[in-house]
Write a structure and sequence with these properties.
With 197 residues, the chain is mainly beta. The chain has helices at 7-11, 125-131, 176-179, 190-196, and strands at residues 35-42, 46-54, 57-63, 75-84, 92-94, 102-114, 117-118, 121-122, 133-139, 144-152, 159-164. Helix content is 12%, strand content 39%. The strands form 2 sheets. It has an 8-stranded antiparallel β-barrel. A hairpin with a 3-residue loop joins strand 1 and strand 2 (46-54). It binds manganese (II) ion (MN). Manganese (II) ion binds at residues 41, 43, 47, 49, 62, 100.
Length: 197
């Protein structure tokens, strides 16, 4: 094995100060199907964190505007450090002075299917991410259907675009990031999570 994929995650955090999970070593989830989570994170600026279970960790992207169900929208998605699997159930408030300080909500979660193919062959997730061309079908409570994550540009700080694929779950009118503001884990709003401490 190469280096610990969670080293960056742990280096950025002081687990005596943040309620976030230190996490175990990379490991498979309990479900057969890999999980995804979209967390709403009110840090220095409000954004959503999309995380996909890949090879025992959560591959992560910060999506400033969150997902759109309209295939015409291209939402910026900035790759961030791998998170431990346990993070998918993290909800709470990170102290303001700590890394990522602010309130975090489990806005949506479920399982996903890797649907990326090349010349009729399935492309493993790690390879699809490496190639900057991810295609997944999400099965969540707020967000479902095909999404593409396409890398744009090169360099040390790659960026991606998160785009809804044109399928039966595409919807130009429904805007879940505006209208569905409660945690799928606890039913709480951001304010309630913050108040609960
Ligand atoms: Mn975040």
């Amino acid at each position: 094995m190469g280096q610990d994929p969670l080293a960056t995650y742990r280096d950025k955090r002081d687990f005596d100060k943040t309620p976030e999970p230190a996490g175990k070593a990379p490991h498979r989830g309990g479900n057969k199907a890999p999980i995804f989570v979209i967390q709403k994170h009110e840090a220095s600026s409000l954004h959503y964190d999309l995380r996909l279970e890949v090879d025992g960790v959560l591959k992560s992207w910060a999506v400033p505007k969150g997902p759109s169900l309209d295939p015409a929208d291209k939402r910026l998605a900035v790759p961030t450090e791998d998170h431990p699997l346990e993070y998918a159930e993290f909800e709470g408030t990170i102290p303001a002075e700590e890394y990522g300080g602010g309130t975090m909500m489990v806005w949506d979660t479920g399982t996903y299917e890797n649907i990326k193919q090349q010349r009729g062959q399935a492309v493993p997730m790690a390879e699809a991410i490496e190639n900057g061309r991810v295609e997944v079908r999400l099965s969540g409570q707020k967000v479902s259907g095909g999404f593409a994550l396409v890398r744009t540009g090169k360099g040390a700080k790659p960026r991606c675009l998160l785009i809804k694929m044109n399928d039966e779950h595409a919807d130009r009118r429904r805007k879940p990031t505006s209208t569905e503001n409660e945690s799928v884990l606890s039913g709480r709003t951001m304010k309630q999570i913050e108040r609960d401490g």
